[in-house]
Write a structure and sequence with these properties.
- With about 150 residues, the protein is an all-alpha fold.
- Helices cover about 90% and strands about 0% of the residues.
- α1 packs antiparallel against α2 and α2 packs antiparallel against α3.
- The longest helix has about 40 residues.
- The protein is elongated, with a radius of gyration of 20 Å.
Amino acid sequence: MSKAGKIVLVSMFIFGLLLLPGLSQAIDREAKFKGYRQKLIQDLNLSPDKAKEFNDVGDKYLKERMDLYAQLQQAMDSLKKAMAATPRDEAKVQDAVNAAIPIKDKLWNNYQDWWHAEIKLLNPVQQAQYLITLENWWKKMMTGHYGRVR
């Protein structure tokens, strides 16, 4: 193998190693989501047909979110690179910011659209349980990240 071929091979290996943490985080996030969904379906006492419909809605929005998270990771990497450059090029920083903001907006909208679509599938008692569960999940998540949440 030529020296250039070895360099390409080593570069591809290193690039692959850099992608693994992001990939493993996405896989872990998806696994946690699926476990959370199964518990929620049990807690809401959904019929098998309603559970399938509920899962189909969740899977649709999860797929969109995973795609958006991948896009956001690329945008944030570009932003960090632009911020680390010496000298810093404000036009490149602004371009990177302008690329990241719409992706974050789409993520926010995805979460809202997701729970709006799910709650429409539920009766009033299930809707109340769903909202309480989401509130408790949110507090648990924030407590894990930020310590204490009221």
